[in-house]
Amino acid sequence: MCLIALAHLASSTFPLVIAANRDEDHERPTRDAHVWAEQPEVVGGTDALFGGSWLAVRRGGRFAAVTNLRGAVRRSRSRGALVRDFVTGEQSPEAYGEQIASVAEEYAGFHLLAGVAGTTVQYIAPELQAPLAAGVHAFSNAPRGETWPKVPAAIEGLRNVLSLSEPEVLIEELMRFLSTPRGTDSPLSEVFIRGNRYGTRSSTVVVATGTGILFAEQSFSPGGAPHGDRRTFRLA
Q1: Where are the domains positioned within the chain?
Q2: Does the pTM exceed 0.90?
């Protein structure tokens, strides 16, 4: 996952909205978003190499999402396990952050968001664990404290649609934003990357309402063409 925009308690209608793009080598084995057989209350994509996930949500609103860091040194454990273990576990976001801090050196650099829709979201990185303030936030592959141009663009893109009242319309608008190139040549600025070897593999939108959660994902082939139909899941 290379871009995560998140609206946490920023809307009276939607307590949580996530709009995210996963950028990855197209040859990396991946399973698109699905209901997890071993955890049927969880929806998310999975990494076929190590079994983790970049973004997953559980019925009831428990979720996690992670980005890597550009240039981070490879470590012994996969960052996808950070998402999987939180979503399938029972620890509070704060307790989970404390646990990860004690073993952070086993993972390459990351930005991890772990929380429960409508309550609390914890930002977790090797050097910092802190609750996320209510509002609209975005994270890329940049080191903490460094802002790439795609980040304010994602914040603005998400903030501009929070006034919509229908979740399906919100999903359509965010999918359009996530899958539209901005016309730059830099991965630091470009939200959607149409590479043939490396590029945006999937766009995901998660919308929590007063009655449940909508999870929508569109996958892309090398070059940026949509791959298959959009998958939509409803978690009561």
Answers
A1: 3-235
A2: yes
In the chain, count of helices (H) and strands (E)?
A: 4, 13
CB 126 within 8 A of CB 110: yes
H or E element that contains 100: helix 93-102
The single-letter DSSP state of residue 173 is H
Backbone angles phi, psi at 97, to 5 degrees: -60, -40
In SS3 terms, 181-225 reads as CCCCCCCCCCCCCCCCCEEEEEEEEEEECCCCEEEEEEEECCCCC
**Region 3-235: CATH code:** 3.60.60.10
- Give Rg (Cα) of the chain: 16
The model's pLDDT over 45-99, given as tens digits with 9 standing for 90+, comes to 999 989 999 999 999 999 999 998 886 656 668 899 999 999 999 999 999 999 9
